[in-house]
Write a structure and sequence with these properties.
The chain has about 270 residues and is of the alpha/beta class. About 35% of the residues lie in helices and about 20% in strands. The chain has one domain: Aldolase class I (TIM Barrel, Alpha-Beta Barrel), CATH 3.20.20.70. The chain has helices at about 30-40, 60-75, 90-95, 125-135, 150-160, 185-190, 210-220, 240-255, 260-270; strands at about 10, 45-50, 50, 60, 80, 105-110, 115, 120, 140-145, 170-175, 200-205, 220-225, 230-235, 235. The chain has an 8-stranded parallel β-barrel, surrounded by 7 helices. Strands 3-4 form a two-stranded antiparallel sheet. The chain has a two-stranded antiparallel ribbon with strand order 7-8.
């Protein structure tokens, strides 16, 4: 797998952690754009984007997504991937609202699950609704797989032509309520993919570093960032999203895998 370019996604902010709990979290449009720019300079080619409102709370408002996207594009030119997950409990119409801005990519979660102490709802009707909006706006989906059954759902939906046949796949492992962050889970999931299917792994919390390192060795791609993990070492928080990207780029160098530029990532993904 040496010399195969590595696509690094950076999830610069999620919908769970709040600024008052973690001072380095970017939440304003300017902070998000700056954090994205730093991550791209460090080696990220995809920016996975959530946004926050004026009070720092998770939001799916189209105007905020538009503002942040424009600010990012003034600074750099990554692949922009919108989250359609929003926060737990966000109505599906709100989750879909930013898709009319036609980002490069958008997430499509493939099932309902316990998400910590809450329930992240993705019924078949919700999946179909988001998939339809993704296709209507000519956006490439990234199928979010949190558990084994979601991969079966993805294959079933593909067989019924309910989701686009061209997609990227992201295994999000370590969420309480989903598949754990054991390396064996990643190997089992990847083993079920068609030969040329592109994929990424996002390890949550302490699982981020071991899973991303194994993914590099397996020839896959990786996601890091504050949405999934705010620690650099046990008990030591990261100072920036870029710091997490830099570490992965450095590890990739040891495997002789060059970090993909945004243009190279677009070619690999067929964007």
């Amino acid at each position: 797998m040496a010399h195969k370019p590595l696509i690094i996604t950076c999830a610069i902010v999620g919908a769970e952690i709040m600024k008052e709990d973690f001072e380095h979290l970017p939440v304003t449009p300017d902070e998000l754009a700056s954090s994205a720019h730093e991550a791209v300079k460090a080696g990220a080619s995809i920016i996975h984007l959530h946004v926050r409102d004026e009070n720092g709370k998770p939001s799916q408002r189209k105007d905020i997504f538009e503002t942040v996207t424009k600010k990012i594009k003034k600074l750099c030119n990554p692949i922009i991937q919108y989250s359609t997950g929003g926060a737990v409990g966000t109505p599906v119409d709100e989750r879909c609202a930013p898709l009319s801005l036609k980002p490069d990519m958008a997430t499509l979660s493939m099932g309902t699950m316990n998400f910590g102490t809450e329930v992240f709802e993705n019924t078949e009707d919700i999946i179909k609704k988001i998939s339809n909006e993704i296709q209507k706006n000519n956006v490439m989906p990234e199928l979010e797989i949190f558990d084994y059954g979601m991969l079966d759902t993805a294959f079933r939906f593909l067989g019924k032509v309910l989701i686009p046949d061209k997609f990227h796949m992201d295994f999000v492992l370590g969420v309480p309520g989903g598949a754990g962050g054991d390396v064996r889970n990643l190997v089992h999931l990847v083993d079920r993919l068609p030969e040329n299917q592109t994929w990424t792994v996002a390890g949550v919390g302490r699982h981020q570093l071991p899973l991303t390192t194994v993914a590099i060795a397996m020839g896959g791609n990786v996601r890091v960032g504050f949405e999934d993990n705010i620690y650099y070492h046990k008990g030591e928080t990261a100072k920036s999203n870029a710091q997490l990207v830099e570490r992965i780029a450095r590890i990739a160098g040891e495997f002789k895998r060059p970090v993909a530029s945004s243009d190279e990532a677009r070619q690999i993904l067929g964007l």
